[in-house]
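[step 3/7] fold_predict: job queued, chain A
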Amino acid sequence: MPANRHPPSPPFAILVLSAALLAGCHGIPTAPAGAAPPPLAATPAPPTQISQHKSVDEQLAELQRVVAETTMVPHLGKGDVLSISVYDEPELTIAGVPVRPDGMISFPLVGDVQADGRSVDELTADLTTRLHQFLLAPKVSVIVTAFNSLSYVINGEVAKPGVYPLVTDVTLTAALAAAGGLSKGAFRGSSVELADLTHAFFSRQGKLLPIDFVRLVREGDLRFNVAMQSRDYVSIPSGLSKEVYIIGEVNSAAVFAFRDEMPMSKTVALAGGFTHDADLSRIHVIRGSLSNPTLIVTDFNKVNAGQEQDVPLQPGDLVYVPPTALTTWTRMLDKIVPTVTALQTGIILGNTVKTTKP
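[step 4/7] structure written:
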């Protein structure tokens, strides 16, 4: 094209159309220069996620601390059998002395003596004091030949769940072996274990012992192999079970069968509503092992108002509604473990799992 030629003029139809468009825009207000753009619809904020994951060394240090805090001297109970002797007094050496259903034992010269609820040392001191009325310097020895009153519980996916007597020193792995080991099932012609070791937990006196069951059972890390005590509770959940726990400041703590698309806000309402002490601004969704969880903290009211994203629950999740006074995870855990233990043993639900769909 020659340099002195102008570009062709636009067709007449285009000029008419442009004029019409400009005329149609007349009267539409325009934003002044520098004005902020109109606000967009607010996107709900994500819930807060807090990882409680600890290293193996941190878990072991915590385990040693909790074991030290919860170690107790065993006390005598109904059904225990004792062997009692007095030095240089053969007629006062008696084997097979039972602790009767009323908690008492019978011994020559002194009659009935309270044994239930006492330690061996306490019973020995009482017998010694009573025998002083008849002997110059009695030297009493009390030996427990059968601790029938002591027991622990293994619940869940073991071959023989139940209550086991603690008659001798027993470690956790020995207790699992005594229960027949982890349950197995058949899948496509092969034998597979049914236990979910990730969600397994160990409760003692209402406190959680941070035991890594995967490392202990699968990898043979015996540093987690603690000695059992009376009233210990071991839970081995099923890998096939799909459950969600709703506990804390709700009117009816419960276990619900998992269903697809279980939002926290709707599922928590199934527990009969909240108590007056409930802190709805800090509902905790606990995911993974209780001893090494991921915490998802959410505000129930903001979720309902569309200001915060809801939490889609997953199998094994535990939803905890704390009271307003509890501020730390450690203190919350002291409340959570006894409730979960009670739910699993049927104290609250009578072994009935609710299957209501939100």
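[step 5/7] annotate
The helical segments are 12-24, 56-70, 120-131, 172-178, 213-218, 264-267, 300-304, 329-344.
The chain has three domains: 81-146, 151-236, 242-344.
exit 0
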